[in-house]
Amino acid sequence: MPLTEEQKQILKSTAPMFKEHGTEITSILYKHMFAAHPELLDIFNRTNQKNGTQPFALANTIYLAIENLDNLDVLLPQILLISHKHRSSMVLPKHYPIVGKYLLLAIDEFLGGTGDPSILNAWSAAYKMLATTFINIEKKMYNELGDKHEQGFIPFTIINKETIASRIVAFTFERSDGGKLQDYQSGQYLTLRIKKDGLYHIRHYSLIEPFNGKTYRIAIRQEIDHEPKGIVSNELIDNYKEGDIVSVSLPAGSYTLINDAKHHLFIAGGIGITVLSSMIQDLHQQNKSDIVTLIHSVAKEDQAAFADQMRTILPENQYYILLQSKHLLQGIIEKTLTPETHVYLCGSIIFMNKVEEYLALCGHPTSQIHIEAYQPSLSLIKDAVKNQSATKPL
Prior knowledge:
The chain is α/β, with parallel strands linked by helices. Helices cover about 45% and strands about 20% of the residues. The protein contains 13 helices and 11 strands.
């Protein structure tokens, strides 16, 4: 049912509270929802709940949706990105009414418990409209996987585990049930689910090589230098070995190559090289290495995963390892960019923000800048909500 003009006006007049206090409101939502439905924690990244990125991302999603009520198509790329995360985490249509219920309770609590029916009805209608959009997109994604077994978490066996750089371990998986592997595009990811201390935990990991029809391969960085530490990453590295079984949902993700680009510039910060390595290998297999440049910024050279492989694929003047030199980074970007360059970024939020500043100084069009981040979608969009203090890179 479409929104009335009165409802649109109410939404636009109350939306600023999400710009000013969005994370506070969505934190209220999650607190009450998880208290009543603790089983839903199984489909949310618990680390993202602890560090505030999940509430922040949801606040941005809601605020930007209301700001674009009459033209939701502008948000379609971000909606698709979120829908891929939902599908890979087993978010189902039955979950949306639950979130909607606690969203209204959170808004009402934030407003002082007034229970104003005109405000709550307008927000209910807006949420249902947004939820319907997600449900329809995700239904198509689930159907593309085939039968119900293919749509959920599937047992995979670790057939190889090896350290490929300082604190970075690669895992190769083979399907345990003998089923067929789903093809994927370079840039997509796997979602792993493990059980630890009686609780389920999920995490998305980029696939690090093009599809070979036999195995999936990811790389994981051990999280030891910030809190909260990555539960799934550390558990896999510390306690899982070759022959062990891991639950995996089939590949997902909307971060992929621009096929008709005349030049590809990949800029990775640390572990951000994982997703970009797959794309570079893909272009190499297409005999397009001559239009690829890679800049990899690391703290120490032994952290530059895939260095030997990249040196084989790319000429010396197309592959740069930088030891956290901002001056050199800016200079190489300026030297490398052309008007036709498509730029792919992956790394910490601080790193990517700095790179975006350099690209802006060069006047590079934002439509040719593609971002992959290790935190919930839409928490990257600048100035969407003010309370960014709780947002930290994973």
